[in-house]
Design brief:
The chain is mostly beta strands. It has strands spanning 8-10, 18-20, 24-29, 39-42, 48-50, 57-60, 69-70, 75-76.
Amino acid sequence: MAGHVIPHFHNTGGAASVRIGARKFQCIGALPPFDHPHVYLDMGDENEIVCPYCSTLYKYDPTLAPGEADPAECVWREVEAA
């Protein structure tokens, strides 16, 4: 499964819910340095899941790509070293 990346999402803005295009992902809570432990979440066959650390409600949206979210700023991408 080389090249497969688990999407990471956060809710720094405090959205009531975050729509995402993945059922398996990691929640980091807020942007570093205010993040919580990066927890792997798996919705299974469900369409919603609540992060046990930050209580963000994530909702699966099949119209979004796996690494996309609504609001879009909830997608976290690690900054590459220059």
